[in-house]
Amino acid sequence: MLLSPAERQYLYDSLVQNPPIRPDARNVFQCRPLEATTTFLPSSNGSARLRMTDGAECIVSVKSKVVKTADTPNLLEVDVDVQGYRDDSNFVATLKYNLSSLLHKNFPFEALKLTSRYSYKLFIDCIVMSNTSYPLTIISMAIYLALKTTKLPKLVSEVDDVNVEEQPTFSDDWEDAKTLGEATGSDFQPPVFITLGVIGSSLLFDPSLEEEQVLENGLIVSFYDGKAQTPLQNINLALNSNKNNYKGLKSTHIVSAISMVNKYCGMIIHALDTLIDQDEGDGQVF
Amino acid sequence: MNTDRRRILGPQDARIPDLGISTNANNSMDIDPAGFAAEKRSSDIQKMFMKTNFISNANGSSYIEHGDTIVQVSVFGPRPIKSSFIEQASFSVECRFLPHLKQDDALDIDGDHHSNPNGRTGLSYTEHKISSFVESCLVPSILLDKYPKSTIDLHITVIEHNSESTSLTNLVNWITVASSLALVDSGVEVRDIVTAGHIISDGQHVILDPIEPVSKRTDCLVCFMNLKNEIVGIWVDGDLDNLDTAIEECNKMSRTIRGNINSYLLST
Amino acid sequence: MESILGHKVVPGQYITPLYKTHGDGVLSFISGKGTTVSQIEHNEKVVPIIVSTVVGILVSQPDASDENKITVSVLSSKYTATGANPDTIDISPVTNNLPKENDIVVVRVTKLNVKQAYCEILSVESSGNVIEDSGLGVNGDIAHQSLGAGGGAQALNNHSTIASSLTAGINAMAGELGESFKGVIRSQDVRSTDRDKVKIIESFKPGDIVRALIISLGDGSNYYLSTARNDLGVIYAKSENGAGDSMFPIDWEHMVCPKTGVVEKRKCAKPIT
Predict the structure, then answer these.
(1) Record's superkingdom (chain B) (predicted)?
(2) The domain containing residue A70 runs over which residues?
(3) What are chain B's domains?
(4) Cβ separation of C166 and A86 shorter than 8 Å?
(5) Could you report the per-residue pLDDT of B23-49, keeping only the tens digit for each?
(6) Which residue in A105, A234, A239, A253 has the most chain B C-beta atoms within 10 A of its own C-beta, making it the best mutation to test that interface?
(7) Which residues of C touch B185 (CB under 8 A)?
(8) Which residues pair with A47 in a beta bridge?
(9) Is B193 helix (H, G, I), strand (E, B) or coil?
(10) Could you tell me the pTM of the whole model?
(11) Comparison of pLDDT for A204 and C79, the residue scoring more
C-alpha cells in the first residue's frame, strides 16, 4: 500500500480544507511542472516527448498515410502502450477508448482532406514509459504537442479528381509541408483531457499519485475550441488502491468542474503553445 | 483469376445455398418509426421487464428487457481469494456482447480486431469501457469493507442490442440498472440501489430514454444513488450547455426506475 | 420506524435516525446486520441515519440491560423462509456476512501437518452457511467434479480475460476451484494448557467436524482458528479415519466408537455445559 492510514488521513484532512492544501503547494487549478521536446523523431510527421516532475514520461508519434476517404471510416487511429500493463488490460483499453473518443469528437477532419477521393489518415501512437498517477492528462498533452507540430507534405497534384482517376502526388520539398493549423487556415488547437480530482467540495487539477489515493471521485473533462467539451465522464483514479474513499458526486461538482475548465484550461493551452515556440528548431532530445 | 494454392477451396463453381436469409428482408421495417416515435411521449420511459434470481449457480442474477435491449447479469461472490491479505473486497466487472451482436463502434477503434468475435479471448474496447464505467458506478454503493479477503465478480452478458436504433449510452443505462439489481439479489450489502437515467436534448426539447435514433446535441447518461442524490456515474457526449437541466431530467428517470425496482423487490 | 417494523425493506431505505427523543429520554438505535449508517444532509445539518443494505424484513431488539438501546437489523429475505411470521423469526440476523474475529465457526478438517490442521469453514454460528452456495463450493452439487477454467458457469467468460478491477490489486483473483474460505488451527492454538506438547495428529483427523473460534482474519488464504476452550474442539468424527462409525466423546481428549469399541484421540468439545 502506498500510504499508511495516518498519512492518508493527514493528506485527506489537508485536501478537504477550503482552499485545499496540496502536498506540493500547488493551487487547485495548477498542473505539475512538465518538460517537453517536440519534432525529435525523424521518421514521424509529428512527435513529442513529455516528462513530469514525478518521473512520468510519455512519447507520442504522429504518422500519416494517404487513404481513400470512402474506404476509411476513421481518419484518426490512436494506439496506447503503457509500460507494465498488458495491451488487453482494462486500464490500457479504457485509456485508448477515451483518447479515441476525444479526438474523434473534437477534430477538424477537413484538414486531413486531400482531394475529393483521398485523405490523410493519422496514426497517433502513444507510449507511456513510466507513470505514477493516472496518465490520461500527460498522454493527451503529449498528443496536443505532437499534433500541433505535425507537418504533412504539400499536395502538388489536382485537388478535384472526381472524374479523373489520379494518384495524389506530393512536393519533395519538406519545407513546403504544412502544419494542420496552416491546412485549416485557422489557429488549430487539438483537444486535451484534463483530469480533476474531487474531494469534499473542492476540485483539483491533475492530481498526483498521493492525492489520487484519497480522492473521493475523479472527473475527466475535454477542452477544445476554447471551452469545456465532451466526452465528460467520471472515473476512479485511484488505481489498485485497496482502501479507497470512493464516493458519489454532487451535480454542483460537475457544474463547477466545467466552469473551472473553461476558466483555466486556456492558460494551460497557452503554456503548451509557448513551449512549442521555445522548442522550435532544436530537435534534440538528450 | 486469383488462385489460392495453400488451401482447399472446393469446386470453383460452388454455390452457397440461401439458407438462413430471410426472404422478406424488410421485415424489420414493419414498424413505422415515425408512428412509434409519436406513440412514445418524450417524457415516457419505455416499458421494461425485469427478473432476478434465475441462475441457480450464481449468488445473484438479473435479467432486463427493454426495447431492443436484453441484458443479463450474474454476480459471483463474495468468494475467497488466493493471495495476500486484502482488507476489503475486490470488485470486478466483465461485460460481454454475445458474438453475433454488432457492437456500437462509431469510433472504429477496434479496427480489424473484432473481425473474428468467436475466437477471441479478450474483450473489445467497447466492452472494456462499459466494464470500467459500470465498476466505477457500483463501487460507491457496495460495502466492500464488510467482505475482507474476498472478490465479488459481476458478469454482464448483452444478449440483444440493436446498435442502429439504440445508442451505447442507452444500453449502458440498462446495464447499470441490471447490474445493480443483480447485486441486490445476491445479498451483498449495498448502501443504495444504483439506478440510471439517459436523456438526449436538442437544446429546447429533452427526450427521456430515447430508443429511436434522433439527431441530438447532448447525450447524457447519469447514474444515481437516490438516497442522497449522489451522482455515481456520468457520461456526456455532445454539447455541455444546460447540463444541470439534463442531470435533473436523468435524475427524474432514475427515480422512476428506482420506484419500479423497489416495488419489484417488495413484491417478490 | 414503527410503521415499517416487520415489513419488507429494500436497500437504501431510511429506517431511523440514530437518536430519537422518546418522552423524557432519548432512544438510541444501533445498526445491526443488514443495515449501515449513512450521513444524510438535511437543512445543512448532517444527520446519521440507519439505512437498510439488503432486501429483507426489518426487526428490532432492545438491549437486555438498557431498553432505550435498540438494535435494528434487516433479515435478508434470501435466507429467510417466505411467509414466515415476523414475530416468530429467530432474531439472529442472517446475511451472508463473512466470519469475523471472535465468531464461532464450524469447520471441516481437510489436511494435517505437524504444525497445523487445515480446514474449510462451513458455517458461522448464528449466521448460517458462510456463503450461499454458488454452485462450485463445498456445498455445491458439483463440488467433486472437475471444471474448466472460468468455473464453467458462464457462457463466453474466461479467466484469461482481464476484466475491470480498479479497486484492488491484480493479485486479488478468485481461486479457480473450490469456494470455501479456508482456516488453520496451529498446534499452539489447539488447547490452552501444555501448548508445546500438542500433537496435531492426536487432536484432529481429516474429515472431523470442529467447532472453533476465529482469532484472526489471518493472511490472504487462511483464517486463524483456535480450539483452546472447553466448548471448542471436535464435535463430530468417524473412527478409523472416516471409514468407521461416528464416535462419542468419553473425555476431553478421547472418543469411542460404540460399535467396535475403538478409542481414538481427539481434542473434544463440550458444547453443552
Answers:
(1) Eukaryota
(2) 33-186
(3) 41-267 (3.30.230.70)
(4) no
(5) 444 433 343 444 444 445 566 778 889
(6) A234
(7) 55, 78
(8) A61
(9) coil
(10) 0.84
(11) A204
